[in-house]
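During the no-cost extension, the postdoctoral fellow (Dr. R.K.) reprocessed legacy sequence entries with the updated structure-token encoder. One reprocessed record is reproduced below for audit purposes.
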Amino acid sequence: MQEVRAVVRAELDAVNAVIIDQLRSDVEMVENVGQYIVDAGGKRLRPVLALLSSAALGGISDLQVRFAAVVEFIHTATLLHDDVVDVSELRRGRPTANSTFGNAPSVLVGDFLYTRAFQLMVALGNHELLKMMADTTNTIAAGEVLQLIRAGDPATSEAQYYDVIDRKTAALFAAGCEGAALLAGADAQKVEQLGVYGRNIGIAFQIVDDLLDYEGDPEITGKNVGDDLAEGKPTLPLIHVMREGSKVQASMVRDAIQAKDREKLPEIIQAVKDCGSLDYTRHAAIECRDKALDALVDFPESPAKDALVRLAKLSLERSH
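Re-encoded structure tokens follow.
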């Protein structure tokens, strides 16, 4: 990942400077909570994608740097809201903002970050971009609601699972790539291709996240194993067990999802292994990675394209 970031290191530093500058507020709590979650680090994956997409089209402008900051603000706002909804206590290896400051400050500062992102977008002066990001933000919110509705519902189908992660996660990946292309004045085909790349990277990223919930190391992932199960999330490994496992295995998983209980986590981890559910899930992520790579085929060779290809491969190889 360090090699990928190195291609846009200077521009990523500029993005971080914009983020710090735009977090300033005369309300102390806004700065405290915003700075807390920014200081927690993270991969900055979405702004990196926006910057690499820009570079793959010929160069990175100041407008594209500021847009990359917009994408990170929207992502950060979703994290603040997610952790409240999921009653999460740990993210990136340390207490979540809601655990530290409380639910109300986390929600309200998330709202601040959403609105700050749109202030920055208005200043970019691109109506097509503003419309796309407004639609994307609405899509993400709808995805969050769908995920909430389906929490604890073992009848969730594989198609419904993909619908949720497409809206909740992949939409912002796609928008970051497409937005960079719009600001570059790229033709419709290039905008679409980068959108396909970003969307499939986003889906693969979420699928691997779901894998790590059952085979990850908490010391590396910064999250507790079985968190998804405790929240009643019917993720792909569990959906596969319920469909392909024995009656006993399927019943055990259904009961755990409905109860939002990880009491039988060791047995469920064994079930997802015995049923080949981890391999099935990993293969689904590989298919998305390959679709992402196909979308880049006719882009000219460049360090940025090489980094996008490497990033697609890293989306499957990561441990956190």
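The longest helix spans residues 188-215. Residues 241 and 247 are 10 Å apart (CA to CA). The remaining legacy entries will be reprocessed before the final report is submitted.
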